């Protein structure tokens, strides 16, 4: 039961952290593209503003990378945006493999508890015979509790792992679309590849 308790605490911490980290306004603020477009249109885009963008959100980090390389042509800009996007995606997927591992091993830990409980039941049967039902019930109860605890940890962990994976996919698609718009605007004159 102790490993299952540790898994449940770790899963809860990851779930709370992912809810906080994967908020849209933290990863891909809706007004960012229009703000960048307005600054470009009004010729208010400065190097200082681009540098401050790098620390604001995942999408602003990607935009800043593209803006810093926009003078080198469309291909260089796309490559820098792709590199920045890979970094952002890596950050978005942080702890997801741990959450998936917890979802996978929790039922196995429950099963291990079941096996240990059944071994105790058979040891009681060998030593005491089938007449002592209290001792038998204790071993069976332990077996059932660990199975239930393993499933109680695994099911929410799996549900949230799937939810967060889908959320990450949605954020990535959104960031790709906005990055493509930025590239198109900056290279609207049919810029050089």
UniProtKB/TrEMBL annotation:
Membrane topology of this protein: Multi-pass membrane protein
The MotA/TolQ/ExbB proton channel domain, residue ranges: 58-176
Keywords linked to the UniProt accession: Cell membrane, Membrane, Protein transport, Transmembrane, Transmembrane helix, Transport
Major localization class: membrane
Compartment annotation: Cell membrane; Membrane
Pfam families named in the record: MotA_ExbB
Chain ranges passing through the membrane: 99-119, 139-160
Stated family: Belongs to the exbB/tolQ family.
Protein name as catalogued: MotA/TolQ/ExbB proton channel family protein
Organism in which the protein naturally occurs: Rhodanobacter aciditrophus
